[in-house]
Amino acid sequence: MAQSSPPLLRRLGAAGPLLIFVVLFALLSVFVPDFFGVRNMRGLVLSVTLVGTIATTMMLVLALREVDLSVGSITALSGVVCAVVIASTGSVAGGVLAGLAAGGAVGLVNGLVIARLKVNSLIVTLAMMEIVRGLAFLASGGEAVSIPAERFYELGSGTLLGINYPIWIMIACFMLFGVLLNRTVFGRNILAIGGNPEAARLAGVPVDSVRITVFCLQGLIAGLAGIVLAARITSGQPNTSLGLELAVISACVLGGVSLAGGVATITGVVIGVFIMGAAQNALNLLDVPTFYQYVVRGGILLAAVIFDRLRQAGGLRLARRAASPSPSQSSEKGSATA
Amino acid sequence: MSGDILLAYEGVGKRFPGVVALDAVSFSVRAGEVRALMGENGAGKSTLLKILAGEHRPDSGAITIGGEDRIFVSPRDSQAAGIAIIHQELHLAPDMSVAENLLLGAFPACAGFIRRGAMRARAAGILARLGEDIDPDARLGDLSIGKRQMVEIGKALLRDARIIAFDEPTSSLSARETETLKRIIGELRADGRAILYVSHRMEEVFALADSVTVLRDGRHVADYLDMTRLTQDQLIAAMAGRTIADIYDYRPRPLGDVHVEIDAIEGPGLSAPVTLSIRRGEILGMFGLVGAGRSELLKLIYGAERPTAGSIRLDGGRLDASSPRRAIAAGFALCPEDRKGEGIVPLAAVAENIAIARRNLADRRAPFIDRPAETREAGEMIGLMRVKTASPATAIATLSGGNQQKAIIARWLAADARILLMDEPTRGIDVGARSEIYAHIYRLAEAGRTILFASSDMPEVMGIADRIVVMRDGAISGVLARAEATAERLLRLALPDAAPR
């Protein structure tokens, strides 16, 4: 029975997000005016860079069976820190480094508390979400900090080979973390810990250091995204990216990353990010009022979570079927014992 | 002394994947009788109780209650028929009060509101009958385990159960609480209830029971209806007596020097310091009943739990075993008892599950995975251990228990482990896969690997080990060479209260 072909649900689990994306994309291209065009496509890709960049490390966090709610606040804090440093020292490099350091530091605190003190990541990062948002307001004095450095804006609006830097950065993250997840011992350890933390520990996986490193990476990448965002809006905004963490988690879950841990693919995350982006883009093109957009976005998240649940139930059924042997097997054992 | 037959098992059979838990068991208990149920771990006592409790349904046969055929489909069904089971693991709500726990499911209420006064009065009445000084308003979780057990017994009294089964009740009771329990059982007997009493303690069984039923390997071995003509020796012989099947195929080998020395190690789960030495290539069996401390000792050696005292020496040199990673670096490996919870990464591929330990060896610093090499190695290991899987990429959760266990052993061979700590490696595994695993273990030992083989299955330990350490209540109670390890001796060392000789 174990030798049969991979069950339908598992195969659907892998191909599901792609199928949804293709259908959605085709429908939007046909029914939404101006959707399928070079200009709009470019805008669409640019619009997903913030969520897409952070989703790469959120993928690692979720694969680890953890969650990080502080990324929206980290994005705001690193943008503000970067702006303040540039405004006061005039050094763009200094500002970028300070922004990255701020993000990495928050991630490190998250990781240390979660891994060493064994506190639930949902609670830790919920608290950090509030604390870091507060720090962003404190650092900025409660107002937007404008950045007096034209050179810095290039990071947000400049292009290479006709493609904007934020898109390059997102692509680089996709590639970097895709390789990290699939090709490195570190990446496979993340999946093993998410799949069964105790089994991973007893097999010699350095569980704590993997957890700390993953949260640190998440902080760094959220910080990077915050700096790029600051460059795009030419200022550090303490109240930016409210609710960003939920959009990022939604994108990951839409892309087939399991909230139960241990299951994640970078292609899935890319598809999830673009499902979200395409839906948002179409709503804007159709001039749907913001109030409805909330409902639609929430609906997409709900659908994603239900999808995840159905897939897990499929996996569970699978495991249960494997655990109970076929009647012929048990009778054979019976006679052997008797 | 006794009245009519109140409870009868009639040809009750029950099968689980890989084992026959009960094979056509028949016996009956009369009103006003205390019947002790005895047998080793795995003899089928718990399954008998679970069928009575409505937690399992028998595959064949039936239970009769007061002459009426009954198969309970749920615990509620069983309770409604006047049956109460006092479980070893207590089914109580720690954050509720004692009174609430006692009356849970039967709160005195008026229009949906609980009548607190009535509830407290009824709870206080029961507690007084138990003779226990327990405040009905106390939070249950604040009570000692023994007192909680008394609350559980109080629940049975409150429900006015006709048939009461106790599953090793005294394992957590103090001497005084044990006396109270004996008094209550006496009262229940005088009151014409039927009582089933599961225990490993000889002294208790002789003091309390009117009769004994002995089970072995899921089969009914004997009923002793007259305790005055029964001796401890007879009882132990009945529990142990069986021949060892030759699926073990013991292979004598010359053993090497002392490989691992455990010196006065102490830690959670142990009641006394443990000292052991194991020779290279030796298979050291570790026998004990459930809860004797076998798993705890293995985890202390492995660094999965921190020892509070003592040391481990490897080939004469002191070993820092403060974490599994360090133990693995020194050549140790653990095949955990809870295969599903601590052994496998269920949704990951068989190949991943095999490769995980080798990848993480502390002296390997390569960040990238060498896929072709790993795939080749996994293929070799799967062939060597004869793991039956569709492909190395199949999720390990879809494999049978025996094949999962072989994959875990393969994991440690790939990591070149030299000392294997195996905790119940054949639990839930059918006979065919078992004998394969035994053959692998001999092959490993012949290749100079050292093996600690912990099991609560006595014939298995006797069949495979060169030497047997017996544990009881968190300490070593004896070490027997293969030649002197008889079933009686092992049981005497493993059972509490059995006089050693």
TrEMBL record, chain B:
It comes from the Bacteria. Residues 7-242, 253-498 form the ABC transporter domain. One of its GO terms (cellular component) is plasma membrane. Gene3D superfamilies: P-loop containing nucleotide triphosphate hydrolases. It is an enzyme of class 3 (hydrolase). InterPro entries: AAA+_ATPase (IPR003593), ABC_carbohydrate_import_ATPase (IPR050107), ABC_transporter-like_ATP-bd (IPR003439), ABC_transporter-like_CS (IPR017871), P-loop_NTPase (IPR027417). It is a peripheral membrane protein. The keyword Glycosyltransferase does not apply. One of its GO terms (molecular function) is ATP binding. Keywords: ATP-binding, Cell inner membrane, Cell membrane, Hydrolase, Membrane, Nucleotide-binding, Repeat, Sugar transport, Translocase, Transport. Its EC number is 3.6.3.17. It is found in: Cell membrane. NCBIfam families: PRK11288.1. This is L-arabinose ABC transporter ATP-binding protein AraG. The gene is araG.
